[in-house]
Design goal:
The protein is of the alpha/beta class. It is 34% helix and 22% strand. It has one domain (30-170): Rossmann fold (3-Layer(aba) Sandwich), CATH 3.40.50.1240.
């Protein structure tokens, strides 16, 4: 004890406390953003073109995969096929998807960064928007998504405001 009644602090205590505090800050929960391209188109590329039977099957597969992933929010574009891809999961989780125009990827990226620290979010976008969103989140460049490619799923973990780690997965559709 010191003369003023306060306990004596050991010389090694401050570095240990600072290290513990730094570790606690680093252990903050991270935001997780799951990004997919919409499922298979039924035909043309117009905004009101929906998904095909194979696309509906893929959307159901996505819903089964993510049913227990703790998804709290879903974002789609204004294009019908993105909403139809998200619909099975949204119905299962009782979430109303938020529509963000496909041209507003910067606004969407800002919404994703502003979410709760431990939040899991699904984004259903397009072959040209998904890679751009990943880049805006700080996940770097991903290979382009081909016109006939619908099975790529990206898991972006936002580790800092402008930095993310990205894992690329493939998820199965349905046999024709």
């Amino acid at each position: 004890m010191m003369p003023n009644g306060l306990p004596r602090v050991r010389p090694w205590a401050l570095p240990v406390l600072l290290a513990a505090w730094s570790f606690a800050l680093a252990a903050q929960p991270a935001k997780t953003v799951i990004l997919v391209r919409h499922a298979e188109r039924a035909g043309g590329i117009s905004a009101d073109e929906g998904i095909s039977e194979a696309g509906r099957c893929r959307a159901e597969a996505l819903a089964r995969m993510l049913a227990d992933a703790n998804v709290k929010r879903i974002y789609t574009s204004e294009v019908a096929r993105t909403g139809q891809t998200a619909e099975p999961l949204a119905t299962k989780l009782h979430i109303r998807p938020e529509v963000v125009p496909a041209k507003d990827i910067e606004g969407l990226a800002a919404k994703l960064r502003a979410g709760a620290p431990d939040e899991v979010v699904l984004v259903v976008g397009h072959s040209n928007t998904v890679p751009e969103i990943i880049k805006l989140l700080g996940g770097g460049s991903v290979p382009p998504i081909g016109d006939g490619e619908y099975d790529r799923l990206f898991v972006a973990t936002l580790t800092h405001p402008d930095q993310a780690t990205v894992v690329t997965l493939r998820y199965a559709g349905c046999a024709p």
